[in-house]
Fold this protein.
Amino acid sequence: MLYLPENIVKEMIEYAREEAPLEACGILAGREKRIKRFYSMSNTDRSPRSYFMDPAEQLKVMKEIRNSNLEMVGIIHSHPASPAYPSARDIELAFYPELSYVIVSLEHNNQPDIGSFRINKGKIIKEELVIA
Ligand SMILES: [Zn+2]
């Protein structure tokens, strides 16, 4: 179960729309599985079908998260033109079974869809998402 505050959902969708047609990505920080903060990150792939976070930027954000007494809980990225479901590449690059992989789909632009997943050794487990 992942708890996402409504204002953070809005921020994520806004960022995904700004970056479209390229994929957008970011880091979700919180405590346990309660998200407190969204950090938008640059997608160094600059691609509509993949994302890669800038390692230096990631390091900076990780430090900020630690200094705020939070932890990294998830990674979010957008699918500008495909469903909110991990792609083959997403599965391949999912190195952290303890993280939630959140996908914002803009496939149906007026009705963004969000899914959260745990990915462990190629296996996808859909995670219940509570938006409040
Ligand atoms: Zn993806």
About this structure: The domain at 2-131 is CATH 3.40.140.10 (Cytidine Deaminase; domain 2). The chain has a mean pLDDT of 96. Helices lie at 6-19, 55-67, 88-92.
